[in-house]
């Protein structure tokens, strides 16, 4: 049929795809509709539900485990066929017979052509489209790791692999929700959808996937407006503001981060049932912000508030009167910048001990802790010890992140190069600094100052090699260009701190 359509309209394949992508709904509702209406209309309830779910997911490699649920999972009634292998097979087979989906022989993963997905969504009445979208959300949410104060301290570092398996489906659901809302303002988000996006936001922040994070946050703020329960909406909104501020802080917009964090913090304070753990988290986030803004005394005030809030909350919940290891580690970093080295060292040693006592290796928090130890040792004039800690931070980071493109990894490599230069190990310094630039150039459009400081430090290293003085001058000029992208008013370019002052506190 499609071949006849192309011939009848005298379209080339390129022309057809251009028109299709420009307005798929028109073609699906007219020329292509007849191709699909009959097979769609013959589907039984479970097959129809399954194809509807698949039509909202990533078209390729839909893993079978996504549909592996039990009766105890309390999912939507429409998904009951997924609890029984024979019923699920009965739902799949008609779709395979009609070539509406395909199944890989080896891994049993499903796939569905984008045209089939789009046509089936347009085929469904609005009410049914809403239901199958909610079904898809329910399955992906069930398969995804959840933020939990009890199991993972509201972090996902130890579950990156599981998060990554679901990520593309979450992003696809996000894009489809945007499109459905564009077509019909009656299309609504469920609480599960907002929770799913909230968890995705945390994972994207940890990965430093900032462009995706920005879009997910924007969609979630739109989605919560459709929730009937306004208390739940406020809860999701406050969390989303927190993730937005983290994104702004990472990209050098620290004043915007402070504004968003303050707004979210006051939203938490106005909740009927105060959540001490979340309040303490907002106070800690504000402390981060002020550290990045170089207001370290103010930052310490917020860390102290966070410590008191978390301790009181633990007592109220019947737990030990203590405060989180992550807050101890971050308070120690603040104390380093205030020159209170002995207090900082004690807190860092306590943090390392507590992180190592956790059931699963908390590789990210340990990496950040060793990084702070490196900064402390360098400030105390012990470059050998600093080098060892920066290398230990990087080694620990590699236990969880194999991509090696994260700015924290770049920070570890940069600092290792810097302390090598402190020790006049010029060749080693040049190697490490060049390696760090390979990472920072990947992010230089949104994180120019990290790249600038690497260029500057490499120029310093090369100046010590008289054969490389011309490259050193070029690198220094390039460093100034990148610093001016962050601070157009900059006039000082000759010291490490001229660049460091703009770097987010996490990898400064």
From TrEMBL:
Domain of life of the organism encoding this protein: Eukaryota
Alphabetized Gene3D superfamilies for the sequence: Tetratricopeptide repeat domain
Domain DUF7779, residue spans: 40-121
Pfam family of the protein (one): TPR_12
Name of the protein this chain belongs to: DUF7779 domain-containing protein
Organism (species): Lentithecium fluviatile CBS 122367
Native organism taxonomy: Eukaryota, Fungi, Dikarya, Ascomycota, Pezizomycotina
